[in-house]
Amino acid sequence: MPLTVLIPAYNAAASLPGVIGGVQPYVPPQDVLVVDDGSSDGTRAAAERAGVHVVSHPVNRGKGAALKTGFSWALDRGYEAVITMDADGQHDPESVPDFIRKWKESGADLVVGSRMADRRGMPLERVCSNTLTSWVISRRAGQRIEDSQSGYRLIAAEVLRRVSLETDGYEMESELLIKAARSGFQVTSVPIRTVYADETSFIHPLRDTGRFIALVWRSFSWA
User: What pLDDT, in 10s, does the model give residues 81-117?
Assistant: First the structure.
């Protein structure tokens, strides 16, 4: 059951080696892909030193675009599933076996890591925003999704083959959930621990909130 770990990365040279090292007990380096999304800090070199595959965008195109590049790479190589995780160290690599176990046992097509069971350390504003956006996405998807903003996911290859994705920013992760669920794919969750430290967020509150709202509005026109 071959799968790949996909890590979209932007200016993550400092944290990336730790993330890759944490994954290696569960997924070998030859099955790990880093998509360097136009970084200027040596992210590509850090990934190459770790011995994993690297694909680079010449300019920063957005997390969604980086993920789509990785999805195409994985499909071209015949992987059965993709685990996506962030490069900043917030996603605990020790949860990788939990995703695989949940996927096998549940038969779900998409497993989303949920931070909502244990919110210790999560900033209050993030608890509120995640609760609201997860409610909205669940309504549009027609399935309950505990933590729609979590980027730690296992996605079956069939989902990526059948779901057409249009957006390139952070909102693409919400687009994928809505379209996958409404296409008949089963979405489930697995509890994860998230580490909050001094990582830099590249989310632009006004711009990305606007894009999220626009995505939800467009979703009313989707079949």
Answer: 999 999 999 999 999 999 999 999 999 999 999 987 6
Model confidence over 135-191: pLDDT tens digits? 888 999 899 999 998 999 999 999 999 999 999 988 999 999 999 999 999 999 999
CA 188 from chain centre, in angstroms, equals: 14
Structure tokens at 43: 């992210």
Query: Tokens 């919400």 map to which residue?
Result: 174
User: d(Cα 123, Cα 112) in Å, to the nearest integer?
Assistant: 20
Is this prediction's pTM over 0.85?
yes
As a whole number of angstroms, the distance between CA 44 and CA 41 comes to: 8
Q: How far is CA 91 from the centre of its chain?
A: 10
- Residues 6+ away with beta carbon under 8 Å from 39: 9, 10, 11, 12, 13, 60
Q: What share of the chain is helix, strand, coil (3-state, %, to 5)?
A: 45, 15, 40
The number of angstroms, rounded, from the C-alpha of 25 to the middle of its chain's C-alpha atoms is 20
Q: Hey, which residues does 56 pair with through a beta bridge?
A: 36
All structural domains of the chain: 3-219 (3.90.550.10)
Helix or strand or coil: residue 37?
strand
What b/e readout covers 182-221, taking b as 16+ CB neighbours within 10 angstroms? beebebbbbebebeeeeeeeeeeeeebeebbeebbeebee
